[in-house]
Amino acid sequence: VIVFERGDLVFVFNFHPKKTYDGYKVGCDLPGKYRVALDSDAFVFGGHGRVGHDVDHFTSPEGIPGVPETNFNNRPNSFKVLSPPRTCVAYYRVDEEAERLQAKAETTGSRKTSPDIIDVDATPVKTSTATKEDKEATSGGKEDASKKGWKFARQSSNKNTK
């Protein structure tokens, strides 16, 4: 069995072909709660699904504080895991503050009984009934803008006009 730690992750490798280690003690630097992040024994990887992903692993302090020689494998904390044969399991440290805030947000959101209602004015808008004189006044007495655009497009495609 090989165990190593990188940041908030703890990796447990069991290379034994047949031996399962139940309650295997794993040392770690950071105290708190750990959960399975990746499990090579999961069904999606062709494994047997023996490692529980819904299990929280809580650390316990080891040795005398301030005396590293009394710690477990030179680590001030430890937690126990199940290590099936020929597997690798990666554990991550749970951010308990973020988890508590998320749980609080979910409970306050579940109390809401009715959806938010938005007041929208859905009255139809009347179309403009401008007269020919009004159109000429706004366009400066010339043709309307749609005809101008059409003429411009036709003129710009002419080879003689640059």
Automatic annotation (TrEMBL):
It comes from the Eukaryota. Residues 100-162 are annotated as: Disordered. Residues 131-147 have a biased composition (Basic and acidic residues). Residues 1-93 form the Alpha-amylase/branching enzyme C-terminal all beta domain. GO terms for molecular function: catalytic activity; cation binding. GO terms for biological process: carbohydrate metabolic process. Pfam families: Alpha-amylase_C (PF02806). This is Putative starch branching enzyme I. It comes from Sorghum bicolor.
